[in-house]
Design a protein that fits this description.
Order of helices and strands: HHHHHH
Helix content: over 70%
CATH superfamily: Nucleotidyltransferases  domain 2
CATH architecture: Up-down Bundle
Radius of gyration: 16 Å
Structural class: mainly alpha
Distance between the termini: 26 Å
Number of helices: 6
CATH class: Mainly Alpha
Strand content: under 5%
Largest sheet: none
Shape: elongated
């Protein structure tokens, strides 16, 4: 049997590290990867909440699970903002990592050449909001969360 508290704690630890990684990449002008790690931070913060409720998903798009399970656990305005930001970051999660090519008459989308400073700054702001908004809920449900 899984210890869901430990799983939730592990996701929270990694969410915080991913946000820190996003900020370091941003500071070094690596904007596409900063966006990717902002998405990863958001995804793992949400997965931490889901694990608290014994829900584990291998999917990268977890916002729908979160919305269904936690709609009554947060202030409506904050919850709406979490969902909006998480959905936006989910879209960018893949787009920021892979060249995209769908038609030979269109140029190849190369993330490292397309994303700019403002894109990364905005993604980090959203991930930071999600993590900080979920942190109190997660920590209060984990008890003695080991801070790192």
């Amino acid at each position: 049997m899984f210890d869901f508290t430990k799983i939730a704690s592990a996701f929270l630890t990694e969410s915080k590290l991913d946000l820190k990684s996003a900020k370091l990449l941003f500071e070094n002008g690596i904007y596409s990867r900063a966006i990717y790690f902002a998405h990863q931070s958001s995804e793992k913060a949400i997965k931490s909440c889901l694990a608290i409720r014994n829900i584990i998903s291998g999917e990268h798009k977890v916002t729908a699970f979160f919305e269904k399970e936690f709609s009554n656990d947060f202030d409506k305005k904050v919850f709406s903002e979490i969902l909006t930001y998480a959905r936006e970051l989910e879209i960018q999660g893949i787009k920021s990592r892979y060249p995209l090519f769908s038609r030979p008459d269109k140029p190849i989308w190369i993330p490292s050449g397309e994303y700019v400073e403002d894109d990364a700054r905005e993604a980090i702001k959203k991930a930071d909001f999600i993590l900080n908004s979920l942190m109190e809920f997660i920590v209060s449900n984990l008890g003695n969360y080991p801070e790192k």
